[in-house]
Request: fold
Amino acid sequence: MKSGLRTPSHSQPGSFGWPRKGADSQDSPTVQLGTANRTVNLYPLTNYTFGTKEALFEKDPSVPARFQRMRAEWDTLGMRR
Reply:
């Protein structure tokens, strides 16, 4: 059984995709990816504090009330700068 995928005749096996090598005169530098030895500092949870914040106060009880307030402010103050 043959696969429906074919490699283009102008490319070597395993070298397909975009952009093709040599398609433009300017070659971009390649990046070598390898394993990196990195140190990760782990600190005990006692160094941190976890708490809650108070809820923020909202001027308006609903969205329509907020839009009404904003219309009134527009009439008195105009555009914000």
